[in-house]
Amino acid sequence: MECVFCQNSVVLGRIISPYGVRGWVKIKSYTEEIEGLMSYQPLWVDKGGLKPLIINHWQVHGGGLIAHIEGVNNRDKASFWCKRDILIGKNALPMTPADEYYWHELIGLRIKSFYAGRDEDLGVVMSVLPTGSNDVLLVSGDQASLDSRERLIPFIKEYVSSVNQTHGYIQVNWDPAF
């Protein structure tokens, strides 16, 4: 049976490992600000089926987060929660301004390049990479695209003309030879 919530959720972090002996865990946050993960509610974990993740204490520690899960009071119980993604419902995310997108909204979109009068399909966005100055789309060619190459396309107005989520593509001005 397919998980309907999973299709309408986004991964915001991952429980990595136990921290100490009193039921704390290390968490890798995928939010822009590390502690941003803790501002979302409710949090969920797939633990033999989706279960609410109730964190009653947390703090930034060593470039990541450590947290205490309610009712977990020793290292063995904390271990049971580890190596699991932390999810929220997509509807819990704040609305983005026009022309701004969450990465999960871009992944899976096709890239259509209109360059030098030619309309070419370059493939599918597989991931988005942060570079500090701007994000970069990792595009992989497939059977429906011009070729099977991987391309890195900066997600900036100079190259990205439009994003059409409804029809599933991003229009770019990108030389297919790159």
Secondary-structure map:
Elements: H1 4-7, E1 9-19, E2 24-29, E3 43-46, E4 50-53, E5 55-61, E6 64-69, H2 75-81, E7 84-89, H3 103-106, E8 110-115, E9 118-130, E10 135-140, E11 150-154, E12 160-164, E13 169-172
Parallel strand pairs: 8-13
Antiparallel strand pairs: 1-2, 1-7, 2-6, 3-4, 3-7, 5-6, 8-9, 9-10, 10-11, 12-13
Quick structural summary:
By secondary structure, this protein is mostly beta strands. Helix content is 8%, strand content 47%.
Descriptive notes:
- This protein is mainly β and 178 residues long.
- The chain has 2 domains: 4-92, Elongation Factor Tu (Ef-tu), domain 3 (Beta Barrel); 103-172, SH3 type barrels.
- It has helices at 4-7, 75-81, 103-106, and strands at 9-19, 24-29, 43-46, 50-53, 55-61, 64-69, 84-89, 110-115, 118-130, 135-140, 150-154, 160-164, 169-172.
- A 7-stranded antiparallel beta sheet has the order 4-3-7-1-2-6-5.
- Strand 1 (9-19) and strand 2 (24-29) form a beta hairpin.
- The termini are far apart.
The number of helices is 3
Largest sheet: 7 strands, antiparallel
| Regions with little confidence, pLDDT below 50 for 5+ residues | none
The succession of helices and strands, N to C, reads: HEEEEEEHEHEEEEEE
Q: What share of residues are in beta strands?
A: over 45%
Count of discrete domains: 2
Top CATH class of the largest domain: Mainly Beta
Give me the count of strands. Answer: 13
The residue-averaged pLDDT reads 91
Identify the CATH homologous superfamily of the largest domain.
RimM
N-to-C span = 42 Å
Give the helix level as a range of percent: under 10%
Radius of gyration: 20 Å
Q: What is the name of the CATH architecture of the largest domain?
A: Beta Barrel
The strand line-up of the biggest sheet is: 4-3-7-1-2-6-5
User: Which word captures the global form?
Assistant: elongated
Q: SS-based structural class?
A: mainly beta
CATH topology of the largest domain: Elongation Factor Tu (Ef-tu), domain 3
